[in-house]
Specification:
alpha/beta; 7-stranded parallel β-sheet; 3-stranded parallel β-sheet
């Protein structure tokens, strides 16, 4: 197949969830001899080395978009809130929009006859410009479900009201976008059911999942006593910020009553001021961006994933499994997986449960080895990229065949809904 992939981030290096999914998906598609053109919508300048690394698997086309920074000050946040209320559009969804990109999508799809045009959730605003080809949007999570969980767990009436308002605006964006999608792809079965309930007329399939590079994240058995725990993730993502803040305030004091020198390492780029402040606590390290998360996970010896918000499959969970590092995680993190608490990882929800799990791993070498081996076996059996992408391609092939049957060999897309 001839595939156009629209990405709002350059996927190499693959250092966050969206980039990992895009990069590995393109790699697997290229390995299966599909022709991929990557249309990168970005405000950053891409170095030659990064471009060359990506062009091993696809042709890259770059289009500039407006630069976007989330506001960090109270004044900036208030101003963006006011703009969102007045316009009826969530600023973080539309501040990156460029009509130039829309025109480029239209021109490319008219000229090159792509079989498929795919993008991730935020790039869905450009699918209305597609002129031919199956329009596919990959949902890493469902706005409605994520906002519902976040509002429920957020303290304070004002913060709840703000989140609820943004939730309504993102759901409006999602509803408008659905009108221009031929195939909605979710990474978890729960998200598939949520989307089907919200949009019963849409074609929604759970035919793709996150995987892990089993060669890069090579297995090393958990043979030494852990020095501490590690959290890995992009640190301006609100569910990650909430998770590490809660862990530092609720869990670490309990652990340190038993193990005074227990360390906690927060690994990931773009830490917020709130996250940076956690480094003032004893034996807490905030690394910022690192090129290789493997050494940090293995140096600590335990990976904790106390995520209570958000959705989708956690790459940090799969990477830790692959490396053989024992994991303690909440039930939220297990969405979209079939791994079993007690066999592949330790499940925990409360501060007391996280503390008990950490102390157990520190004291029980046999249990560390058991989890280490089972976690690796789990990802080897269930999260290989080529298997996941094969299912995705099969579903797209079925859709194309049905579309050709019903449309006499051609796709016809209009632009009846407007994003601007």
């Amino acid at each position: 197949m001839k595939i156009l992939t629209i990405a709002e981030q350059f996927p190499f290096p693959a250092d966050d969830g969206t980039k990992i999914q895009t990069y590995e998906r393109i790699r697997a598609l290229a390995a299966a001899h599909h022709e991929v053109v990557l249309l990168v919508v970005t405000a950053e300048d891409i170095s030659e080395n990064r471009r060359v690394a990506m062009e091993r698997y696809c042709r890259c086309i770059f289009v500039k978009r407006p630069h976007f920074d989330r506001p960090r000050s109270s004044v900036g946040k208030t101003a963006k809130l006011a703009v969102s209320i007045i316009t009826g559009r969530a600023y973080f969804l539309y501040d990156t929009f460029s009509p130039v990109v829309g025109q480029r999508v239209e021109d490319l799809t008219k000229a090159y006859g792509f079989d498929v045009v795919e993008t991730d959730t935020y790039g869905g605003k450009y699918l209305r410009y597609v002129r031919g080809g199956l329009r596919v949007c990959i949902f890493h999570s469902v706005f409605h479900s994520c906002h519902r969980r976040e509002v429920a767990k957020t303290p304070g009436a004002i913060r709840k009201a703000v989140l609820s308002m943004y939730g309504r605006l993102t759901e409006k964006f999602e509803r408008e976008m659905i009108n221009h999608i031929d195939l909605c792809v979710t990474l978890t079965q729960n998200d598939c059911m949520d989307l089907q309930t919200l949009y019963p007329k849409a074609r929604v399939r759970h035919c793709l999942s996150n995987g892990v590079d089993l060669e890069y994240f090579a297995f090393e058995p958990a043979s030494t006593t852990p020095r501490g725990a590690c959290f890995v993730g992009k640190m301006d993502y609100s569910p990650n910020v909430e998770a590490v803040t809660w862990f530092c305030k609720a869990v670490l004091p309990l652990v340190r009553k038993q193990v005074k020198d227990f360390q906690f390492s927060i690994v990931g780029g773009a830490p917020t001021e709130e996250v940076k402040a956690l480094a003032k606590l004893p034996n807490v390290t905030v690394t910022g961006y690192v090129e290789d998360v493997r050494t940090h996970m293995q140096a600590m010896g335990i990976v904790v994933v106390p995520i209570r918000l958000g959705g989708g499959i956690s790459n940090k969970l799969l990477q830790a499994f692959a490396c053989g590092v024992p994991v303690i995680a909440t039930a939220t993190v297990l969405d979209g997986t079939s791994c079993s608490p007690g066999r592949d990882l330790i499940g925990a929800e409360t501060a007391e449960q996280f503390t008990a799990a950490i102390l157990d791993l520190l004291q029980n070498a046999d249990y560390r080895q058991y989890l280490s081996q089972n976690g690796r076996a789990y990802v080897e059996q269930n999260h290989r990229w080529h298997s996941s992408v094969r299912s995705y391609v099969n579903e797209m092939t079925r859709c194309i065949a049905k579309s050709y049957d019903s449309l006499d060999g051609s796709f016809t897309h209009d632009r009846s809904a407007s994003y601007r």
